[in-house]
Amino acid sequence: MPSKKVVKNDSKPKFRFIDLFAGIGGFHTAMHSVGGKCVFASEWDKNARITYEENYKAIEPSLFEKDEEGNYKFFNADINDVELDKVPDFDVLCGGFPCQAFSIAGKRKGFEDTRGTLFFNIAAIVNHKIKIGKKPKVLFLENVKGLKNHDHGKTLETLLRVLQEDLEYEVRTMVLNAKYFGVPQNRERLFFVCWDKEQCAAEDFKFPLGLDKNLRSIFDVKELDKAVATKVGDILEPDETLPEKMTISDRMWIGHQLRKERNRANGKGFGYSLFKEDATYCSTISARYWKDGSEILIDQTQKRKNPRKLTPVEAGRLQGYKIVGNGWKYAEAAENQNNKNRLPTMRIVVSDKEAYHQFGNSVAVPVIRTLAKEIKRQLLEG
């Protein structure tokens, strides 16, 4: 295997950020693309850590420095073990924090409402920085859309109270859909952008709702019909390179169809989803995709075959990562916004099962990248 070339960046970073609940680095990719330097990351899953280090060590070698005992200094594993004094100072905190149940949400005030949850770890790191006079300028957080209504809205109310009253940030939230940002996936997520008014002069933060064909931010919901065009075929590898195992078996296909019929009869509406290559977008990919691929199956009727699952490469492209794999089925897709030469290439270094799991858990990179540009423009430079 050829040695990896360390990418040197002699220019001074525009801002420093930390990457909590880092996964495979969707936030890192986005923030680095607008001039950020990652000074600390935390991810507990061992396979995600392998992918993260493989893909970012050349970009940010200092992040993976080790002490004399061979322990990582800045690439933390369990966020519950973070030593607050050892987290470097930073300007922006990024985190796609898991949505855990808040059994006592809304019963008390401030930090006590979030103890025992992973959100508390975010608040504790920020609170420590505030106490030592190093308050972060911006918090950039992501979660599932359902967080808005969790526990009848009490969970979100608790989080906002901590962010606004305890940590004293201006906070704006918005649900954004990846299908408007250049990836063919109907993926809605809730985003938080929080800023310190003493360090950032902005009175408001205007969320980009999508990208137009020239990759300029769309801010008016009435303009979303002008969003950059997408189709499922943009992410596909060439047919001749597809392993036969991607085509689901007769038994599985029959099972999918029977299950959908039963669910429809019961009024559940759940079951497999089948997409043709010219579909504008597909369903949301999840971490369980590796099990049977039912939420996104590619139609192969013209080949007289059962539907097939996405390959791991295609699953990654569906989240906006640039992955070369076996190339692109349609040549023009190699030149779209997610695959340009200037963008870093994601390498898959884990099993297919783990790759599906990791991409299903990931953020959609073009959404994060667009938000990162606006955070830099509206808050850090405004």
What does this structure look like?
With 382 residues, the protein is of the alpha/beta class. The chain has two domains: 15-227 and 365-380, 3-Layer(aba) Sandwich (Rossmann fold), CATH 3.40.50; 232-361, DNA Methylase, Chain A, domain 2 (Alpha-Beta Complex), CATH 3.90.120. 26% of the residues lie in helices and 13% in strands. It contains nine helices and eleven strands. It has helices at 26-33, 46-56, 118-131, 154-166, 250-265, 289-292, 312-318, 352-361, 365-380, and strands at residues 15-20, 36-42, 75-76, 92-95, 138-144, 170-177, 188-195, 210-211, 217-218, 274-275, 297-298. The strands form three sheets. It has a seven-stranded mixed β-sheet, with helices on both faces. Strands 8-9 form a two-stranded antiparallel ribbon. A two-stranded parallel sheet has the order 10-11. Strand 8 and strand 9 form a beta hairpin. Helix 1 (26-33) crosses helix 9 (365-380).
Rg, nearest Å: 21 Å
- Helical amount: 25-40%
Tally the helices: what do you get?
9
Structural class: alpha/beta
Count of strand segments: 11
User: What top-tier CATH class of the largest domain fits best?
Assistant: Alpha Beta
Number of domains: 2
Structure described in brief:
The chain is an alpha/beta fold.
What is the strand and helix layout of this fold?
Layout: E1 15-20, H1 26-33, E2 36-42, H2 46-56, E3 75-76, E4 92-95, H3 118-131, E5 138-144, H4 154-166, E6 170-177, E7 188-195, E8 210-211, E9 217-218, H5 250-265, E10 274-275, H6 289-292, E11 297-298, H7 312-318, H8 352-361, H9 365-380
Parallel strand pairs: 1-2, 1-4, 2-3, 4-5, 10-11
Antiparallel strand pairs: 5-7, 6-7, 8-9
